[in-house]
Amino acid sequence: MTTSATVTPLHPAAPGSELDDVCERHPDVPRLVVVKTDVQRRGVHYTDAALARLDPERHSTTGTHIFGARDGRIAPRPESLLLRDGSSIITTPTPPEQGPYTVDVVDGRLALVDAGRPIEEVDYWPRPDYYAKETRSGLPMKFVVSARPQRLNVFPYRHCHFWNDDEGCLFCDIVPQLRKGKDDLGIPARLDPADVAETVAEALREPGRFVGVCLTAGSNTRGARPFDAEVDYYVEILRAVGGAFRTPRFPSQLIGTAFETDQLERLQRETGLMSYTADIEVLDERLFGWICPGKARWVGYQEWKARLARAVGVFGRGRVNTGIVAGVELARPNGFATEGEALARTLGEAEELAAQGVSTVFIVWSPRPGTRLGGQRNASLGYYVALAKGLHALRVRHGLPIDFDDYRHCGNHPDTDLSRIL
Amino acid sequence: MPVTLDPRVQALLADPATTKVLATSDRAGRPHAVVDDSLHLGADGRLVYLERLEGSAAQRNLVASLWFDRPAAITLRRGAESVEIVGRPVKTLVAGPEFRRHYEAARAQAPEGDLAAVWLIEPLEVSELTYEVRRTCQEAERPFLTHLDRLAR
């Protein structure tokens, strides 16, 4: 059983200066990547002028996220933002009192603004053609498969069984979000593979839009062995998706639980899947037990890492990684006391994985209401930039490509953005 | 400060007979140049370069240019006539209507081809590279740079 953390204000604004300071301290990291990281960290608030620029016929509006927004609302707002370098900022609307960046109209263009200072021009994500269509079963296709600028997201199963025993990850709101999606939007908890197949086929009719398909869902512990049911369903969905391609394999990523080797071999053998991710969330055994109680009980920290390493034998070097929710390692009351300690432990553990062919990528922890860690604050911008550099350097040192989880195939990892100039 | 390209340079860019070379460098300064017919003038006065391969050196270098504010150079040559444009990559398009338009055109030209990115390059300065013009100019402005035998009776 876990306890809620004390609620403290999230980044009670000293905006502006921290960005400049971090850029100055890290001249080898592009300012755009630092800006992106800071926007992920602090969130955004859209002005009325910016929202007036949102055209649901041309832009993607918030859709089927399995995770919620920091202001806890589901409303038609911009799905997210594109930067000048073609990378995305995956971020969510955040209450103004928490000190987010403002998205406003400056000199006729959309821009990120901080403390009244224009920081960077941005664009809304273009809406894909298929968002206007429905499946034969009558579901809006945008609720079946959601789109990033270059990636198709399939969230086929919107429940996580760890929550059944009150063992969901402490930073996660998948189950409350499932309820909202079901109640407010009519999104089914479990997608019919036929709807997915039809939607993906329709999405691929749009020339030049997508470069990858990402599949993810909540963990499902059921089956003859734990997670067999999860694997069964992924196989079913991936085979349905594969029907849209003329090649036996297609650029794809499965973000699933840490499976056993024969479960992975089955996924590799029976579907066109090309890469595999099992998010360990936090790279420290003690914190894993606290923050991810379900994963800890059903798999365990050391076994999670061992399964990742074995997955390299199935999918190959450069095609297996793990994600961390960077910043939760500092969450109170059990997190590391200092950012220095957290960084050292995280990079040390990531190095051990990299030596076995497993990349580590991070997303910036966004403390959302509805999670057990809601109300806490994430780490400093300097911490995230140092982490991005550190994880990137590990991939360079160990010769691990990250094409399957780069700015085109995901866009949510500042560390993999850095691979663009390798 | 961005400059507006004069009609002569615009005409060079628009002429299919013009050879166009994009020169970039990586962060360590390693140079790289590609001959590429896709370079053209966009409606907003920026140069447009279509990069077909995400993994190319030009793509990497243009990303580095945009990230670290480093210029790129474009050389245009038609017959004896030649100019150089130095510009700043300011934006890359990877999705949306403009990207799609270029993608469809590229695929219509080469059905097996791909398009990774549309680059927008803001022209900063234009230099004359036509040899006869440069030689005449140098002889007038820097007379010490010539070989004496060229001046002998």
Question: Could you characterize the architecture of this molecule?
Answer:
With 422 residues, chain A is of the alpha/beta class. Helices cover 33% and strands 14% of the residues of chain A. Chain A has 13 helices and 14 strands. Chain B is an alpha+beta fold and 153 residues long. Chain B has helices spanning 7-14, 57-68, 97-109, 131-141, and strands spanning 19-25, 31-35, 40-41, 47-51, 72-78, 81-93, 117-128. Chain B has a 7-stranded antiparallel beta sheet with strand order 2-1-5-6-7-4-3. Chains A and B meet through α2 of A and α2, β6 and α3 of B.
Give a summary of the structure in a few sentences.
The complex is a heterodimer of chains A (422) and B (153). Chain A is of the alpha/beta class and 422 residues long.
What are the segments of chain B in which pLDDT stays under 50 over at least 5 consecutive residues?
A: none
Poorly predicted residue ranges of chain A: 1-16
Order of helices and strands of chain B: HEEEEHEEHEH
Q: Tally of extended strands of chain B?
A: 7
